[in-house]
Design brief:
Helix content is 30%, strand content 23%. It is of the alpha+beta class. The protein has four domains: 145 residues, Rossmann fold, CATH 3.40.50; 61 residues, Dna Ligase, domain 1 (2-Layer Sandwich); 130 residues, 2-Layer Sandwich (D-amino Acid Aminotransferase, Chain A, domain 1), CATH 3.30.470.20; 97 residues, Glycinamide Ribonucleotide Synthetase, Chain A, domain 4, CATH 3.90.600.10.
Length: 468
């Protein structure tokens, strides 16, 4: 072990705990008719024996995962590095997520039965491989399998081999190649950084100059660019949990990528989401399983690179049918916040079964009968360089509203105990109710109770679906 890793490990085993009770479980939430539809429910009943679980990450996605596990009761929860919101339900450890040996050591030191890796960067860096090498079950793909997100060109290659419907595309490495591809596909132009870009590496524009400028920026950073045809139609997200053989779909969601109302402004990591999708085709999930998820998982296994974890299928519902926009290899943020809020069966069972190759023996997930809407509160200047260090107030007032929970992302606690902003997307306020309109009202009532100087949020999350 190097001195740097040893120092990281020493820090990792020093826990930090913030003595805030996690708010009581809000009233549950809605789903299209299904044999696995649950009535409005209390917390899911735990059938897996209480276990020790480490959640790796520090965003609202990880807070949502911890929140769902905490609802089950009985588990001992840990997070690395976590955030002040996560620390209300889990013991947090300041580990470096880029260090596989440090995460693996922490998992062994804490005697964890399961590690759940949230963000994409540790997955493409091989942290899941290090955890498995330490003989700890891990939810998340290997570094090789994580290239489905780490390289859009690799994902396109896998989709072509598996017969998965997606946009026609060209991999370009020079300005001349990019110009030829832009002219081939025409406007609107779709230009994607081939590597990881935290959800912000894609430009969709009617301007050839803007498209070429984005491509040139990527080239100058040493990254190839994928240019593809524009897919016209609503976009949806479907998470498919897999152990490398069996595939279990979760409830569909829709997120909002643009910073401003009316889908205006620059791309972001996501400004809000909702579930269920009352307007979606009733056979959407089955289409995703048969045309996308199962063929992709089978192709990865055929290549000797089994995919275990969650395959995020970003999809466009075009006039020509279902098309894949992108693959991610982890739960999406902010869709996770609404999907897991609606999960009425234990998340721990699902994750553990996927991590241990037992997914085929698990009963299908059960979904609440309510709807969920989340609205992201962002810091001033996001998605540019955000303003940080401003005090956040009103979270307790927001969570006092029935059906509202507040999940933290870019936050930190000062030495005076006050919560302040520490990132671009600061909070995800989740509202739940008997329908999308009620869930939306609660989410916006919650966000209206919170104060953060200069912050902004979209006012039209789930609006069209709620009124249709």
């Amino acid at each position: 072990m190097t001195d740097a890793v040893a120092a990281t490990v020493a820090d990792a085993v020093r826990p930090t705990r913030i003595p805030h009770p996690r708010p009581s479980t809000p009233t549950a939430i809605t789903e299209p008719p299904s044999p696995h539809l649950h009535p409005r429910n209390a917390a899911p009943q735990l059938r897996l024996s209480p276990v020790r679980i480490l959640v790796a990450g520090s965003g609202a996605r990880e807070d949502g995962i911890v929140h769902a596990l905490h609802r089950e009761g009985g588990h001992q929860l840990f997070a690395a590095p976590g955030n002040p919101g996560i620390a209300r339900a889990a013991q947090v450890h300041p580990v470096d997520l880029a260090s596989g040996p440090a995460v693996a050591y922490l998992a062994r030191h804490l005697r964890c039965d399961l590690v759940v890796i949230g963000p994409e960067a540790p997955l493409t860096d091989g942290v899941a491989d290090a955890v498995r090498a330490a003989r700890v079950p891990c939810f998340g793909p290997s570094a090789a399998a994580a290239q489905l997100e780490g390289s859009k060109a690799f994902a396109k290659e896998v989709m072509a081999a598996a017969g998965v419907p997606t946009a026609a595309s060209r991999l370009t490495k020079t300005r001349d190649e990019a110009l030829a591809a832009l002219d081939e596909f025409g406007s609107p132009y779709v230009v994607k950084n081939d590597g990881l870009a935290a959800g912000k590496g894609v430009v969709v524009t009617a301007s050839r100059e803007a498209a070429l400028a984005h491509a040139q920026t990527c080239f100058e950073a040493g990254c190839p660019v994928v240019i593809e045809e524009y897919l016209d139609g609503p976009e949806v997200s479907v998470f498919c949990v897999t152990d490398g053989a069996s595939v279990v779909p979760l409830a569909p969601a829709q997120d909002f990528k643009r910073a401003l109302d009316g889908d205006q402004g620059p791309n972001t990591g996501g400004m809000g989401a909702y579930s269920p999708l009352p307007w979606a085709p009733p056979d959407l999930v089955e289409q995703v399983l048969e045309q996308v998820a199962r063929p992709t998982v089978a192709e990865m296994a055929r290549r000797g690179v089994p995919f275990q974890g969650v395959l995020y299928c970003g999809l466009a519902l075009t006039a020509q049918g279902l098309r894949v926009v992108e693959f991610n290899v982890r739960f999406g943020d902010p869709e996770t916040q609404v999907v897991l809020a609606r999960l009425a069966s234990p998340l721990s069972e699902l994750l553990f079964a996927a991590a241990t190759g037992a997914l085929g023996a698990l009963e299908p997930p059960v979904w609440s009968a309510d709807a969920a809407v989340t609205v992201v509160l962002a810091a001033a200047n996001y998605p540019g360089k955000p303003v940080t260090g401003d005090v956040i107030t009103g979270i307790e007032a927001a969570e006092a509203i029935p059906g509202v929970s507040v999940l933290q992302a870019g936050t930190k606690l000062g030495s005076d105990g006050r919560l302040s902003s520490a990132g671009g997307r600061v909070l995800s306020v989740v509202g739940m109710g008997p329908n999308l309109a009620a869930a939306r009202d609660r989410a916006y009532a919650g966000i209206g109770s919170i104060r953060l100087d200069g912050s902004h949020y979209r006012t039209d999350i789930a609006l069209r679906a709620a009124v249709s």
